[in-house]
């Protein structure tokens, strides 16, 4: 077996603590060698730096980094890591804009390092069986409902409503990463309405009607103000039965009968991402699928904008 | 010499009459065999159809089509033409969204036909010399000013303010097609403000600050309400002199001294596009650079929106 990939974690916010640290700790292909954060927060017995430059200037040997910062600063950090010959794991969305993500792909190829634009929801337990089931059927129509309480899931994270923070499209891009994986044909934005709070820059809700090239409608509702029951569901009707992918892809039912269920996303999504990243590094390959980001950009390009009530935490 | 490419013109609006008809008439590589328009408007002695299906059902033999419709309907028409084995010339922007344009590229490759996403401004007389001059210098900063009177240039064209009509980005994408050609490094949207009239869906003005990866600022102002002197200018400062590309790329000056000027865009831009399209068809190749469209999508993705006064013709 190869020696472990020496990885540094950059951006020590909620997602790093909740998902990346346990996934790395449980994967023998990786050895966590340092953390980097502008806001402090050391881990026991592990070198800590307040910048990527400080990490590079240290005697810690690094093969790869995982970037868990907000998307606004991701491109510059990733470019710096690529230039140092480090492999790069990007949290979703891979950058704040398509031009940034495209430039990173070009740069990684030129430097010969692996770049991985991760989409964790694609590794939820129900996604692959849903894809296989839909591939053998003819889609009639579908609905996407991604409705969560931003105050619960992103408490006080103002960056999410800043330009480049994606607003409700921060979770919605998870739905779109699944939809672009399980539906067999490309989705086109037919119409969209985006709701932006009067005191913020990014969306708090959106309605989008997609169609595929055969005219099938995929109706999506994205909402950041959902209280009570939280919903991350995709439902589809086909020529032979119905499919419900719920809980962010974690549970799957065909015609109402459960076909797949995961106990705990910790046990599946991020461990699968790190297994994939290790494969890419070992194979000298990259995986940068920008389709979900492209759809979010298309929605903004074609949407009618509605200014709604101010949002405060 | 090969026999001429038998071409049909689809969408007989202003751009078809002003630019495509004279360019085709003067290029021996093409023979115009039919026109298609939902709104009528026959040309003397030429077969006319009210749909692409009617054209296909006729005994007119077609090798290629040029699509001059508004962008909202372009994808479906282009897909239909590709499926019939026709080569396709797309007016700019190539589609209403990136997913649509990407799907057309995939479809044309699968069908083995040539797809040409045209950017007419890239063929203005000053563009190529500007690119060559900038390639040998270090950029300091640049400004883009694209300010025209929509009432003069697009009188009554309501589609331009509908979703997918691009608003002020219909002309602005010409500026971006030049900028992405002449500046040697990718442009990233650092910040943007888009102004949308209260009674419309698309932008009437925008301010965008781009930066390249070296931090050079490219400051852009796009305005659809410019009266008096109309401006389509890109100015750049470098380590060795200044460059002014004016009149949509038609005139070029280095350090104030004229380096290139065209008498008439009719004489250069569209004839060059048709020469390129003929090359692509003869070579069995496609040319689909989506970078300008990607930048427009990135601007919308990252912009702050400001709702401004209603717009009426």
Automatic annotation (TrEMBL), chains A, B:
Which stretches make up the Gfo/Idh/MocA-like oxidoreductase N-terminal domain?
5-116
Q: Which domain of life is it from?
A: Bacteria
For this protein, what is any one GO molecular function term? nucleotide binding
Q: What PANTHER family does the database record attribute to this sequence?
A: BCDNA.GH03377 (PTHR43818), DEHYDROGENASE (PTHR43818:SF7)
- What's the name of the protein? Gfo/Idh/MocA family oxidoreductase
Record organism: Sphingomonas suaedae
Q: What is the lineage of its organism?
A: Bacteria, Pseudomonadati, Pseudomonadota, Alphaproteobacteria, Sphingomonadales
């Amino acid at each position: 077996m190869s020696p472990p990939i020496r990885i540094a974690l950059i951006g020590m916010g909620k997602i790093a603590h909740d998902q990346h640290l346990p996934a790395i700790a449980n994967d023998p292909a990786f050895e966590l060698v340092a953390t980097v954060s502008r806001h402090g927060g050391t881990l026991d017995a592990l070198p800590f730096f307040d910048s990527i430059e400080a990490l590079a200037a240290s005697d810690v040997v690094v093969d790869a980094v995982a970037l868990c910062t907000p998307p606004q600063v991701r491109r510059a950090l990733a470019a710096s890591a690529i230039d140092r010959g480090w492999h790069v794991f990007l949290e979703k969305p891979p950058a704040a804009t398509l031009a940034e993500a495209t430039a990173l792909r070009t740069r990684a190829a030129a430097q010969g390092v692996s770049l991985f634009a991760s989409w964790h929801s694609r590794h939820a337990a129900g996604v692959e069986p849903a894809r296989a089931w839909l591939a053998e059927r003819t889609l009639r129509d579908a609905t996407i409902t991604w409705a969560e309480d931003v105050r619960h899931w992103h408490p006080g994270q103002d960056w999410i409503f800043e330009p480049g923070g994606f607003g409700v499209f921060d979770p919605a891009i998870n739905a779109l990463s699944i939809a672009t994986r399980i539906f067999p044909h490309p989705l086109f934005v037919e119409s969209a309405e985006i709701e932006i709070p009067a005191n913020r820059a990014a969306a708090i809700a959106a309605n989008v009607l997609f169609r595929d090239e055969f005219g099938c409608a995929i109706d999506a509702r994205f909402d950041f103000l959902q209280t009570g029951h939280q919903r991350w569901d995709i439902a589809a009707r086909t020529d032979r039965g119905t499919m419900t992918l719920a809980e962010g892809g974690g549970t799957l039912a065909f015609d109402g009968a459960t076909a797949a269920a995961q106990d705990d996303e910790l046990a599946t999504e991020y461990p699968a991402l790190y297994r994939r990243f290790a494969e890419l590094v070992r194979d000298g390959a990259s995986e940068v699928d920008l389709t979900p980001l492209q759809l979010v950009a298309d929605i903004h390009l074609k949407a009618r904008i509605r200014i709604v009530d101010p949002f405060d935490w």
